[in-house]
Design goal:
This protein has about 700 residues and is mainly β. It is built from no helices and 65 strands. Strands 3-30-29-28 form a four-stranded antiparallel sheet, with no helix packed on it. A four-stranded antiparallel sheet has the order 4-5-6-7, with no helix packed on it.
Length: about 700
């Protein structure tokens, strides 16, 4: 005899709409691309008209479609139709009941999931009328119907007409919003509010006109957003007149009657589905996430934000906006002249300059433009001297100066080494321009065009590789093949493996906000952070693959305003945070996984610019909250022999010839299924946990015993 039970643990191995400001000084930046994951017929979603989305207790998504209900576990869709207990396949809305059960409403009324199938047992008291909208508030489920008014589920589970509802009983309820403050419900061409106590407060005559309210939303400031067939109104908290926000908003004729056409985004802004994409307000006007930004289709019918802050769009299929809403990219497909981005700088006027493998690029009037005279150059570093203009370095090996009028001056290297690269430029406290190259250190006195001087550093080969330059107060830091160097009081000091570093050949060195320095290596061994004082280095903290880095090879280092360390690797970007190491890569919308040296800049708004061999990535780090919480695991299905083990109401016994055990499970995280690991153990057969990326385990023949 076999008695079985199983425990599964899920953990996120490593690891959200960069639709916000285009931060371009007087000019706007070009529109960046976002990455969407598309789910359609080949993924098991056989009906592409998604009208409503809800998330269950275990994290799975439930979709209302014209062909019943679909459950999505992050990788697969499970279809529920009439044979699963639905009265009709035409489902208009899905919602989670206060007890965690998923309910589906539509032409056939209300049915709720009992763990095995949809049941009408929980719809006692509801009239035989189509269900149009639902919401949970005050521990109860509220249901709007097509022709029978508004209902609420009582403590005994039976539905009754909503106490005090002022609307006509036969009037259809299409607009309902539930939040911590109460309910907002459309009542014809006006709106009623309640705290669930049977007392309703109408908004009065606020200038909405005579059109019926199709959908409602209350934002985090308490303002009401009211949508009619041809208008979108905003009524601020305490205001007596609504503002028509329809100017500039694309039409939404295909979305009339959609119960989930508006939602609150992960950053608190209101997202609006339209015929041309997702609209949101910024600086008093509408912005769009549409096809120009990578939206696969035009119409966004249904919007939903899950518990991890991921935006889901129901349109012709289901779309997931990747990157946790903070990543967009720029590459040759969006007009960026080069495909490799080496550096970024903003000048005093606020113009963004980008060094690429093709030319020096300027963002202007919504476009990327090559600067005349820099075509065919690799631009790896940019500096703005006090007299104006700019110095640029890279390849060819000459230092280039562009004055305020756009005139170019070329300054060849003193040794005329043709394959030499200028890797970094820095204005030192002494006013000189320091030039780190692949074959020695140079400087330009007073940072004005003239003769470049050779710099000999004691203990370092004259033609050694000098990489990133960093100015810290009166100190000048650089990294070489012999170690990390600091110039202080006119003297150079060299530190390497003998002083506590993991190696001597180094590539990057930066300063952090707390005064520490961090350095990376020419070998794939990680990053070291340390303190410097009195001519000595100390307090080392080493960050290696064993500590959670995706790769030990770091191409760029940088710190954001929240003091998180960003490390560009050859397999994406790692973020070292107080809550662990997070990860972003191409699947999140980065322009490329292969990071480019020194291509890191903190913009004035706190966002980040990262470079790679695939282009430029703009990360809205000011809206990035750090690694997501560890996911939990939940059972999807399981069988012992030919019997289900899901909710068995006690132990299961089975004869020896029906002793195969199969269990399917999923995690609560929808961010990136490929990064979710599961730990599985069948006790007492297995004493240790087994790690797997698979969502199913099978034991073909259990021995007699209790499990």
């Amino acid at each position: 005899m076999v008695t079985a039970g199983i425990v599964v643990l899920a953990g996120l191995a490593g690891r959200v709409r960069a639709d916000e400001a285009r931060h371009g000084g007087a000019d706007e930046l070009p529109v960046g691309q976002m990455r969407f994951r598309v789910f359609a017929g080949p993924d098991g979603l056989s009906n592409l008209v998604v009208g409503s989305i809800a998330q269950g207790v275990g994290g799975m998504l439930w979709l209302a479609t014209d062909d019943g209900v679909y459950r999505f576990d992050g990788e697969r869709f499970t279809h529920f139709s009439r044979d699963s207990g639905l009265r009709s396949t035409a489902i208009a809305v899905v919602a989670m009941r206060p007890d965690g059960a998923i309910c589906a409403g539509g032409r056939g009324g209300l049915q709720c999931w009992d763990g095995q199938r949809f049941s009408q047992a929980a719809s006692r008291g509801l009239p035989a009328s189509p269900v149009t909208t639902m919401g949970s508030f005050g521990g109860r489920l509220w249901v709007g119907t097509e022709g029978a008014g508004l209902y609420v589920q009582g403590a005994d589970g039976e539905f009754v007409p909503a106490p005090g509802w002022p609307g006509k009983a036969a009037f259809p309820i299409r607009a309902l919003w539930a939040d911590g403050q109460g309910l907002v419900v459309g009542n014809g061409a006006t709106v009623e509010l309640t705290e669930g106590d049977g007392v309703w407060h109408g908004i009065g005559q606020v200038g909405l006109g005579e059109e019926p309210i199709d959908s409602v939303l209350r934002d985090r400031d308490g303002a009401l957003w009211l949508r009619t067939p041809t208008h979108l109104w905003q009524l601020a908290r305490g205001a007596t007149r609504a503002i028509d926000l329809g100017a500039g908003l694309p039409s939404h004729f295909d979305l009339v009657g959609a119960p989930s056409g508006m939602t609150i985004g992960p950053r608190g802004d209101v997202l609006v589905g339209t015929d041309a994409g997702i609209a949101y307000r910024e600086r008093g006007r509408w912005r769009m996430i549409d096809k120009s930004a990578g939206m696969p289709v035009a119409t966004a019918r249904t919007l939903f934000v899950d518990r991890e802050g991921t935006i889901w769009v129901g349109a012709v299929g289901l779309f997931q906006l990747r990157g946790r809403g903070v990543v967009e990219r720029h590459d040759p497909t969006t007009g960026l002249p080069g495909n490799v981005v080496w550096t970024y700088r903003r000048d005093a006027a606020g113009t963004l300059w980008v060094g690429t493998n093709r030319c020096l690029v300027r963002a202007t009037a919504g476009h990327w433009d090559c600067v005349q005279g820099t075509e065919g150059r690799v631009v790896r570093t940019i500096v703005f001297p006090p007299q104006g203009g700019m110095f640029i370095g890279g390849a060819p090996s000459d230092l280039l100066y562009i004055d305020r009028d756009g005139q170019l001056t070329s300054m060849p290297d003193i040794d005329r080494i043709e394959d030499r690269l200028i890797l970094s430029l820095a204005l030192a406290p002494d006013g000189d321009l320091w030039i780190a190259t692949s074959a020695g250190m140079r400087r330009l006195p007073a940072a004005v065009p003239g003769e470049i001087q050779r710099v000999d550093v004691p203990g370092v080969r004259p033609i050694a590789r000098f990489a990133q330059l960093t100015v810290v107060g009166d100190q000048l830091w650089t990294a070489t093949d012999e170690g990390v160097l600091v110039r202080e009081d006119g003297e150079w000091r060299l530190f390497n493996k003998a002083d506590g570093f993991l190696g001597s050949a180094m590539r990057r060195v930066i300063q952090r906000a707390d005064g520490r320095m961090c350095a990376s290596y020419s070998e794939a061994i990680g990053v070291s952070c340390f303190r410097y004082a009195g001519g000595k280095v100390s307090a080392f903290e080493h960050i290696r693959p064993a500590d959670g880095l995706t790769s030990g090879m770091a191409y760029f280092l940088g710190e954001d305003p929240q003091h998180r360390l960003w490390i560009g690797t050859g397999a994406g970007v790692d973020v070292v945070t107080p809550d662990g190491i997070d990860h972003f890569d191409e699947s999140d919308g980065l322009a490329g996984n292969d990071s480019a040296a020194t291509a890191f800049m903190v913009d004035r708004d706190g966002s980040l610019w990262l470079g790679s061999t695939g282009g430029a990535s703009h990360v809205l780090a000011q809206h990035y909250a750090g690694p997501p919480p560890a996911p939990s695991a939940s059972f999807v299905d399981g069988r012992l022999g030919d019997r289900s083990i899901i909710d068995p109401h006690g132990a299961l016994d089975t004869p020896h010839d029906r002793n195969a055990l199969t269990v399917e499970f999923t995690s609560s995280s929808m961010l990136d299924p490929k990064r979710v690991e599961y730990e599985v153990r069948l006790s007492p057969l297995e004493t240790g946990w087994s790690v797997t990326h698979q969502r199913q385990v099978r034991y073909p023949a259990l021995l007699p015993g209790a499990y």
